[in-house]
Design brief:
single chain; 6 helices; mainly alpha; Globin-like
């Protein structure tokens, strides 16, 4: 990612942090609207799941200029998601729900450049997860 895109993601994330619980609700609401079958993959407290999601995104955002230290954790998460029934196609659904939720949460701050930067961020992380999960060792 370019330094400019990293800066866009980081600055827009600062607008999300104060509304992170609402952002997580928006995300999961949209995710289950796009694909209601995914609801059965989530057994626990959705508020807690949302907090975990926001913490993971926060770590990723803070690591964008050097993903090396978190890459192993991202890959492990991808391998764990296979056990939950996650398929490669689900990553597209998650990406759509995430970008939609960010757009709703950020409103007019979600410019085309910010959207593009977030899409690249998600694609980078999702690709690492999928490669670890679905590429034979």
């Amino acid at each position: 990612m370019t330094p400019e895109k990293i800066a866009l993601v980081r600055s827009s994330w600062q607008w999300v942090l104060p509304i992170k619980d609402k952002a997580a609700q928006l995300f999961y609401g949209q995710l289950f609207e796009i694909d209601p079958s995914l609801r059965s993959m989530f057994k626990g407290d959705m508020a807690e799941q949302g907090r975990k999601l926001m913490a993971i995104i926060n770590t990723a955002v803070n690591s964008l200029d050097d993903l090396g230290p978190i890459l192993g954790a991202v890959q492990d998460m991808g391998r764990r998601h296979v056990a939950y029934g996650v398929t490669e196609a689900h990553y597209d659904t998650v990406g759509k729900a995430l970008i939609w939720a960010l757009g709703k949460g950020l409103g007019e701050q979600f410019t085309p450049a910010v959207k593009d930067a977030w899409i690249e961020t998600y694609t980078t992380l999702a690709s690492a997860m999928k490669q670890a999960a679905y590429t034979p060792a």
